[in-house]
Amino acid sequence: MPYLPILPTWVAINGADDPTPTGLQDIRTGQTVYGGALNLGDYFDMTEKEANGNSDTDTGTLHAGRYRRVQVDSGATAANVKTGTIGLMVAGGQPQLNLVTSYDKGIVGAHPVVFLNSITPGNYGFVQELGIATVLCGSSIQKASPASGDLLEMTTAGVVDDKTTQTVNQATIGLALAPPIANTLIIAQLNLPVLQG
Amino acid sequence: MPTDPLYNEIDSTNLESVRKNTVFDNLFVDTPFQAKLRRAGVWDPFLGGNGMFEGFIYGRPQGAAVAPGSTVTVTRQQMNTGMKFQPKAYVSWLPLDDWELDDGSGTGGVINSGPAMIANQYQILMELTVKMINTMIEMDSFRHGQAAGTGVADNRILDSNGLSEALNNGIDPSWDGNYFTTYGGNTRNGVIGPALNSVPLFLGTASGGTGQIDFNALMRMWAQGTVTGGSLDLGITNVLGFAAVANALDAQRRDVSNTRHDINWTGLNFNGVDIYADPLAPSAQAGDFLSLATANGQSGNNTLVDGAGISTQTSTFLSPTYSGLSTGELSPTGSLVPSNTTITVGEVLFFLESGSFKIRPTNKKGWNYGLRRAPMPNNVSMDALFMRLGTNLYNVSPRHNVQAYGFAS
Asked: Rounded to 5 degrees, what are φ and ψ at B396?
C-alpha cells in the first residue's frame, strides 16, 4: 500500500529532482541509500494549508490535492518537464504508474499528471495527479473568450488549451479555475482517474 | 558517477575532521518574551475544565455625599463579570523511520548509530520540534486568537489570544491592522464600557507613514499604562525596534541605561520599564536579516512561522473610516490613528505590566511538551511523532499595557 500519509519529502514537494527514489544517494558509489522511508510510488493527500506549507514558493505554490513520488523516464523530453506541464504514462511502458514521461513520449489520457517543477529525465520527484493544480497554458488559446469553468485539454508539449468545442475526451484534464491566458500558469481543478499502486 | 578506483589514497586512509554531537543552529532564535513572563511568575498551569475563566470588575456601586437623615433609593447594577479563554493546541510533527533513527531505546537506528555516528539525528529532531513550538507560541503571542469577523481580517481561532487582541480598544487598529470588538468573550465599549480597553498608539505621520520613536513617545506610552493604575515593568520590541529606541534616547542624552538584565538578554531601562529586544517581535526590518519573509531563498521550511503559518513581519493596512471623520483626521480616542489612511506599521513597541499576563500550559504531561508516537500499522518502519503543547496566553488587565507602532528603525 504505497498510500503513505507519514513520509519525509526532504525538500519542498515542488523542489525535488533526485537521482534516487529515496532522495538519498551514497556520495561515493552513487547508489540509493535507504533511510527515512521515502519510496517510489508513495502517494499522499494534502490540504490546502499543508500543500502551501510544503511549497517552494520561488517555483510555485501548491494546492490541495494528491501527490505522488515518481521517476521521470530517461527518454522524456526535458524541455517539456517543467512547472505546470502535463506528464503521461510512457508509451511502451504500460501499465507502470510510477514512471512518467513528457507529453510527447506518452499515451494521451493514460495516467495524466501535472509536473510541479523541472525534473531531469531519469531522476525522481513529485507530481500531482488529483486536486487543485497549477497548469501551463500554451502559446495560443483556441477559445475566443476563455473563462473560469472552461474545460482544459492537454496538447502538444504538455501545455493546456481551452478549446472552442468543449467536449470531454481523453485529453481533458479538468476545469479552469482562472481564465486561461497564453503562456501563463493558471489554477485548475483536475478531473482525472484515481489510480492506486 | 563513482570513480575508478572507488576511493583515492587520501579518502581511503583519512576520515573527515568532525566535532561529534555539535550542530549549529542557523535558523531558530531565542524567545525572550516567554522567558521574561515565566520569570515574572505568570505561569499558571491549566488543571482542566471548560475553558479558562478570569473574573474582573467593570462597574461600581452607587454613592454620593448626602445630607444626614435623607433617604435614598438603594439600587444595584452588576459590577463584575468574567472573561473566558480556551486552551490552544500547538503541535509539531515529523515522521520517524526506525531503520534510519534510534529513539534512544537501542532497538532501531540501523544507520544513525554506533561509533560512526556524528550526531544523534533523533535528538536533533526532538529539539527542533520543541523549538518549533516555542517559536510558534512566541510569534503568536504578538497576534490574536479570534475568528475573522468585524474588524478582524484573519481567522486565528486556533492560536493564542495574544497582544494585538488584548491591547486594543475595539475601535482603533492594532499593529496587525485588526481591531477587536470583543476580548475574552466580552463586548468592548458595551455594558462593561472600556474596562478591557487599551488604546493603541500610532507614532507615524498624519498621512500614515512611519515616524520616529522619541522620549516624548515613550513617556506617552508610560502615561497611558500608568494612568489606569498599571505598573509597567516590561518592554518588548524587536531587536530593530530596540535599536531605534536606544538610538533615539541616546541622541537626546536622555535617561538611558543599558544594563545586562537577568535573562541573558541586554535590556534598556526606561522609567522603570525594562525593554528587551525580541527577535521574533513584530518588525518591518527584521525580515532582512532573519528568515521571516519570502526573499533570498526564504521559502518553505527554512522560514520561521507562527501557529497560523505566517510571520510577525509588519507591512501596511488601511485604517478604519471613523464615524464623521474625513480621510486623515485623527481618531477621537487619542490613538493618533488617521482615518481611512494606509498605515505603514514599521516597528512596534509594547509597554507591559508583566503581572497582568497569564501563561496557561496544561499540567497533563502528554500535552505539556509530551510526545505522541503513532505507528503506521502496516508499515515496516514508519511512525509519526507529534510533539504537543496545550496552552494559552492572555491578559487579565489590558488597560495596564500599551502598544505603539508606526516608527522606523
From this structure: -95, -10
